[in-house]
Amino acid sequence: MTYCVGLLLDAGMVLLSDTRTNAGLDNIATYRKMFLFETPGERAIGIMTAGSLSITQTTMARLTDANDDPESDRSILRAPTMLQVAEIVGGMLSDVTTEVSAKMERMSQGATASMIVAGQRKGGPMRMFLVYPEGNFIEATQDTPFLQIGEHKYGKPILDRVIEPGTSLADAEKAVLLSMDSTLRSNLSVGMPLDMAIIETDALQISRRRRIEADDEGFARMSAAWSEALRNAFQQIDPI
Question: How many other C-beta atoms can be found within 10 angstroms of the C-beta atom of residue 59?
Fold first, then answer.
């Protein structure tokens, strides 16, 4: 499985994904689920994927080929708006889902995938979309400034309580990492390493990207501090 989360804030965007796609006692596979595209000074785009690996890899390969083809009308690096970027990604995801599902159905199997598309083009606002397998999508808003795909239920409570549009990027980074930590502790199908990216408002480039490995000391300290803080808070609450 997967857990990917994106925050849309006044100060910018924070994207975080895990890299585990298969989990079992003797079968663990790691694949990148975050894909970053940029034309510095003109646009920056991040895409995170969850679901069938065959669908997500094929979709991302076709999107990359379209970027490299100067005659293609499905290039996300040439689309005039982020809305049209989301429409291109949605159309490609829908096409691939239909193709793969038709093959899987012949073997009585199913396949599906979803994506988070986030970014900014010069002259336009930062926008973030959750794209469904059918190609339709919803958009992050001031009321709901974050989107999740995959195993999202474990990491959602802290985001609901902490994240608002005015949250700083530093606090947002901490929130998504703690959201991921809660998911890692509760679901073995989500695993390290983690990929994180920051896109600051109007930077029009990927401001910062980082891979967090399983032995990262900073992440371990944050996880331990969060556990201790929760235990202390629990002890301080009086029963009803």
Answer: 26
At the top level of CATH, which class does the domain 3-236 belong to?
alpha beta
Contact assessment for residue 182 and residue 155, using Cβ atoms and an 8 Å cutoff = yes
pLDDT tens column, 91-105: 999 999 999 988 766
For the chain, give the number of residues: 240
Rounded to two decimals, the pTM is 0.94
pLDDT at 26: 58
In the sheet with 3-9, reading across from the earlier edge strand, the strands are 146-150, 3-9, 12-17, 194-200, 208-212
pLDDT at 23: 47
Burial classification of residue 78, based on how many CB atoms lie within 10 Å of its CB (0-12 exposed, 13-18 middle, 19 or more buried): middle
Which tokens in the block code for residue 68?
A: 């490299």
* Segments making up each domain of the chain, as ranges: 3-236
